[in-house]
């Protein structure tokens, strides 16, 4: 996909001048980004650089100090609770480390978001069928009655992905989708993310410090350095940059 093709697209998510500090720990110092319809945008930054803080501001789990966040042309800082709930049903969030509910079976883990966002699907919602389809999408229908403690790390990540997908989000936010997985399992998760992207034409924001993941999946990348969008470009553009701060990410 060429840059001009991407730029001609609709913006589904936009962050402008986002600032967030915890006391005198200034984490985000004016971060900007734009996610276009249908693209995979990777955000890389070293540990502690504020990637999770940024994504949490985006979904309203943290309140930004200042800046604007627009999701599908709506300024989320200006939405009331019910409007925010409706919007949230369109944004899937795959948490860092899966975050399944340990006391619930896989089936119950998947039913949970459906119940919370039942308004989105109305009376026609067929919970059983939706749970089955979501599990089939990640190849784990046979795990439906297992507890999270009975799953491997890779399986947990797939179930978490199924739980995100079940709401048919237009935008998916992935926080470190491959962290803690061996390289082969990580590759399987990346393939799955690509399949989902193709099947549902979602737009994805992927936070990672896995260079292989970034190479495989990104249409564009942003490097989050010193609390700002330090560099923006394709993987190849950034990987061949001579700036030492940028080069540091691509060294193996
Ligand atoms: N709720 C919080 N209260 C206080 N400080 C916080 C809070 N959440 C994050 N921080 C601080 O913000 C900074 C950025 O944290 P964040 O979790 O966003 O890093 P990250 O880039 O996601 O790192 P990693 O790659 O390790 O996941 C850290 O210094 C962290 O201590
Ligand atoms: Mg993080």
TrEMBL record:
* Pfam families from the UniProt entry: ABC_tran (PF00005)
Looking up InterPro entries in the UniProt record yields: AAA+_ATPase, ABC_transporter-like_ATP-bd, ABC_transporter-like_CS, P-loop_NTPase
Listed GO MF terms: ATP binding
The record, for SMART domains, names: AAA
Question: What SUPFAM superfamilies does its record include?
Answer: P-loop containing nucleoside triphosphate hydrolases (SSF52540)
Entry's transmembrane regions: none
Keywords on this record?
ATP-binding, Nucleotide-binding, Transport
> Locate the ABC transporter domain: which residues?
13-251
Entry keyword Transport: yes
- Please give the name of this protein: ATP-binding cassette domain-containing protein
Question: Which organism is this protein's natural source?
Answer: Winogradskyella vincentii
Lineage, uppermost ranks: Bacteria, Pseudomonadati, Bacteroidota, Flavobacteriia, Flavobacteriales
């Amino acid at each position: 996909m060429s840059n001009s093709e991407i730029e001609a697209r609709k913006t589904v998510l936009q962050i402008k001048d986002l600032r967030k500090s915890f006391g005198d720990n200034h984490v985000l110092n004016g971060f900007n980004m734009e996610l276009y319809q249908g693209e995979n945008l990777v955000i890389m930054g070293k540990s502690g650089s504020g990637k999770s803080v940024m994504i949490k501001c985006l979904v309203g789990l943290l309140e930004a100090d200042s800046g604007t966040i627009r999701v599908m042309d709506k300024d989320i800082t200006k939405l009331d609770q019910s409007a925010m709930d409706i919007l949230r049903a369109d944004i899937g969030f795959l948490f860092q480390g899966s975050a399944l509910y340990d006391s619930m079976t896989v089936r119950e883990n998947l039913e949970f978001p459906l119940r919370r966002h039942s308004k989105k699907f109305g009376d026609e919602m067929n919970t059983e069928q939706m749970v089955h389809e979501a599990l089939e999408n990640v190849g784990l229908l046979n795990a439906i009655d297992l507890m999270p403690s009975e799953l491997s790390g890779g399986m947990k990540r797939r179930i978490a992905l199924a739980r995100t997908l079940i709401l048919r989000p237009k935008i998916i936010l992935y926080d470190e989708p491959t962290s803690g997985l061996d390289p082969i399992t990580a590759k399987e998760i990346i393939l799955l993310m690509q399949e989902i992207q193709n099947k549902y034409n979602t737009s994805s924001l992927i936070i990672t410090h896995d260079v292989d993941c970034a190479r495989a999946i990104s249409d564009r990348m942003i490097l989050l350095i010193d609390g700002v969008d330090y560099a923006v470009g394709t993987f190849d553009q950034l990987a061949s940059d001579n700036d030492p701060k940028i080069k540091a990410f691509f060294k193996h």
